Structure formats: structure tokens, C-alpha cells
Amino acid sequence: MSAPPAGGPVAGAESAEALAVPATGGGANDLAIRAGQCGIGIALLLAWHFASGRLIDPFYISAPLAVASKLWTWAADGTLWLAFSYTFQAMILGFVVGSLAGFAVGFALGRSDVLARLFDPYITAIYCMPKIALAPLLILWFGIGIESKVAMAALIVFFLVFLNTFSGVRDVNPLYLQVTAIMGASPLQQLRHVVFPSAAAWVLTGLKVSVPYALIGAVVGELISSNRGIGFLIGQASGLFDTAGVFAGLAVLAVTGIVLNAGLKKLENRLLRWRGQR
Amino acid sequence: MIEIKGAAKTFRTGARVTAALEPIDLAIADGEFVSFIGPSGCGKSTLLNMIAGIIAPSSGAIVHDGRTVAGANTATGYMTQQDSLLPWRTAAANIALPLALRRTPPAAIDARVAQMLALVGLANFGGHFPAELSGGMKKRVALAQILAYDPPTLLMDEPFGALDAQLKLIMQGELMRIWENAGKTIVFVTHDLAEAITLSDRVAVFSSRPGRIKAVETIDLPRPRDPLRIQFEPAYRAVHQRLWDLLAPEIEASRAEAFA
């Protein structure tokens, strides 16, 4: 298969961690970094606050306090929770459907050379196509309800998980298979004790990278056509020239992304403890 | 008893057939320690892999304890230069693996694993992952793993090749101690003549490619042997000299081939 690059888990377009920095050990150092991170955030908010109205027309960039008050209004009248749960639901469903399908197909093609070679050109073709371009088709098929958003998210997730599973199943060290065969492992036992755990690192990377993409899929679906969800709120606010509303929607998405990513990183570190400290 | 009966290996690249190993005849008795030595590419590892059942001979056969080897030979334990421990399993879980594959009851597995960890001097390291162990410790775990299920024969392909010189001598000493108590047959591949002499009852010297056995020499140095001191004994030096005279022309021939 030509799509997955060799050498390590396929990270899709870009890794979920924007900057992969080796973790430092020192506790005091970590604290200083945390303080610095907060400082940067506050500085940016202050710059935004003072620039708005003085340097740049608030029509374009709104203002932090306006955004906060918008979020407060949404939270108070229930709009925020309703929209968020809708988007989150679409994202989770899409993630589950896409990753299950991606794992199953990746595993099947990874184990069978014939299947892999048969489907290679088609998978490469769909992989190279921007999945977003399929959104109109998906809406045509599944309507403007949650189904089309789930389909959008699932489609994007499918490829990330598929490619990583495929590569992971292919990447099994043949020495491990030989040694376990001599120890008396049946092919089924080899699958359980060697192939699955070996592929797990790849599959987990695929899953981790997929979560933000599932969010993207769901929101894109909502932006194109919907009557609910965070994407819909952003689209609607933009239609009304309500810049504060647009920024409020974006802020919700950013926070969702950060929280999900932190949780996944914890999970990955736990499951892949055997890789040693990195 | 391992009987190598005219086992040969040829490789086909397009229309060309290359002989890697000419037909080999050799019998290895139960409890014997036999080393294969020769220049790289002489087919000594190929022959070992045939006994392990990982490579099928192109002609001839290998008979192990009366059964012709076909497919992975589960009556052997196999140890290589590269790390073959599963990195996602702790040392204890790696040692337990062959037992779990044989559906040994969990309580019996735990007891056996503890016994094996103690045997290789790693009683306190059962919970460590391979990435957390040193090179020598990983070799000890690999040895404990293949001893755990008690196969009658151990096949070792340059198992200590990646270790530094001192650690290698220590591991040789431990292997001999375990072998002298366990009564295993060991077939040991190496390109280190000193290692072959120190460990073996017999040493088979392979010619350069295409490989054949040029000579089989009996090493009648008294046991137990001390890897740290044996090389200073006159008897050892005589054997070393004799084997080196057999081996040196093959190393030169293989070097000439490499530069041809």
C-alpha cells in the first residue's frame, strides 16, 4: 500500500500535539512553564482587550469581555449546553463508527496481501481526496440531521485509524513471530499475544489523532447545513455579523480540543507504559 | 539427539541458484554442547534455523528425537543476538509466556517464573519491562524464558554477540553453570573462537560460502571451566591454535569474496 509513510505511526495531516517537546523532569521547571503559559494567555487577552476599539474595529475582532458575556448568556439560557451536547454526540458517534470500521478494515487488509493489493488504488484515491468535499454528498444522503455529521466525522476518522492499524499489523517484528512459534504458539495465540499488542501502539496513535478530526468533521457538517450544534451557532452568529458569537463558538471548540487531547495523552501513557519514559 | 541428514540450502534469485549450505551430515548427542563456528555468511545460522524449523532445508532432513523437523520445532528453545523479548510484557510476563501458551495453570506459572528469575539472578526485576533492563539483564530474561518450559534442546544464535567483552564472559559462565545442572543439549552459533572453545564439547568449523563442515573438533578440556581464566591454560592454547589454523583460511576466503 502506498499511502502510509514508513517509519512510525501515521499522524494524519498533523499531530494533535502542535509542538512535540520532550517532557522535562524538574517539578519547579514544570511550574515555571505553567506560569509562563498562563502569562502568555493573559497577555494575549489583554492585548486583544486594548486593541479592540482603539486599533481595530470591534466589528471584526469583537472583545474578550463581549465574548465572555456572550458565553454567559448562552450558558444561562441553555443554548450552550444544547449545542455542545449535540456536537459532542455527533463527534463521539462518528469517532466510534469510524474507528471500529477503520480498525476492522485495516486489520483485514494488513493481514491479507491479496486484499491489500486489490484495494490499494481505491483506498489511495479516497485517501487523497479532501474528505470535506464529500460533505454535500453526505448531506444529500443522510439529511441535515445528526446522521450526516456522524458520517462526516466517521469518514475522516476511518482513514486515520485504518492507515495506522494497517501499518501496525504490517509492522510486527517477524522475529517475535518466529520465537513464539518455537515456544509453541498457535496462529491464534500469536494474533493475541504478538500481533494485537504490537499493533496497539499504532492503533492508539491513530485513535488519538482522530479525536480532534472527529470534532472537525462534526463541526464542518454543522457549518454546511444544520439547525443545531456549535458549528451551527458559529455559522448563525457570522450570518448576523455577531463577531462575539463567532469567537464564543470558537472558544468552546478550542477548550473541548484541549481537554480531549489531555485526557487521551494520559490514557496513551498508561496503556503504553512498556515503551519506557519518553 | 539431533540428526542432520544431508540437509542443504539453496537460494533462487531469478534463474540463478546459489548454494548457501552444501549437504551437511552431523549427529548431536543428548546433553552435548556443540558450537558452529565460521566466517559470516557461511550458513551456520541457516543450519541452526533449520533445526529450529524456521527455515526448511532445500534437500535432506533434520531429525530431532526421532521426529523429522517440519515447521517450528517446539521441542527447542531459541535465543538470538537481537532482543526477542516482547517489549510490552514485563520480564516475569515474558518468562510466563511459553507456559501460558501451553495452558499451564496460573499458580504453577507463578511458581515457575519466580524460580526462573532466581536462577538467572533477577528475583527483584520481574516487574520491569525490557526497555527498563540492561543488555545483560535482557539476555538473562531471554535465557530464563527458554528454560521455563524445559525444552530438551536450546538453540542459540550468537546470543551474547551484542554484549561487551567482560559481560560476555560472565554470561558464558552463567550459561555453563545452568547447562551443567540442567542436562540440556545446546547448539551454539558464534564467530568468536574463544567462546566456542570455552563452552563446547565439540566445535564444528564451517567453510566460507557455500558452507560445509570442514572439521569437527572435540574439546576435551576439563569441566567446570572458568571463562575468565581458561584462556591462560596450555591445553586451551593448543586447542585454540589447532582450530585457528582451520578457521583462518576460511576467514580469508570469505574476506576475498566480500571484496571481489
Which helices and strands, and how do they pair?
The complex is a heterodimer of chains A (278) and B (260).
Chain A: H1 27-51, H2 58-61, H3 64-77, H4 79-111, H5 113-128, H6 135-142, H7 146-170, H8 174-183, H9 187-224, H10 229-239, H11 243-271
Helix pairs in contact in A: 3-11, 4-5, 4-7, 4-9, 4-10, 6-7, 7-9, 8-9, 9-10, 9-11, 10-11
Chain B: E1 2-13, E2 16-28, E3 33-37, H1 44-52, E4 59-64, E5 67-68, E6 76-80, H2 91-101, H3 106-119, H4 135-148, E7 153-157, H5 165-182, E8 185-190, H6 193-199, E9 202-206, E10 213-218, H7 234-259
Parallel strand pairs in B: 3-8, 3-9, 6-7, 7-8
Antiparallel strand pairs in B: 1-2, 1-4, 4-5, 9-10
Account of the protein in words:
With 278 residues, chain A is mainly alpha-helical. In chain A, 77% of the residues lie in helices and 0% in strands. Residues 1-8 and 11-16 of chain A have low confidence and may be disordered. Chain B contains seven helices and ten strands. With 260 residues, chain B is of the alpha/beta class. In chain B, the strands form two sheets. Chain B has a six-stranded mixed β-sheet, with helices on both faces. A four-stranded antiparallel β-sheet of chain B has the order 2-1-4-5, with helices on one face. Helices cover 38% and strands 25% of the residues of chain B. Chain B has helices at 44-52, 91-101, 106-119, 135-148, 165-182, 193-199, 234-259; strands at residues 2-13, 16-28, 33-37, 59-64, 67-68, 76-80, 153-157, 185-190, 202-206, 213-218. The longest helix of chain B has 26 residues, at 234-259. In chain B, strand 1 (2-13) and strand 2 (16-28) form a beta hairpin. At the A-B interface, helix 8 and helix 9 of A face strand 6 and helix 2 of B.
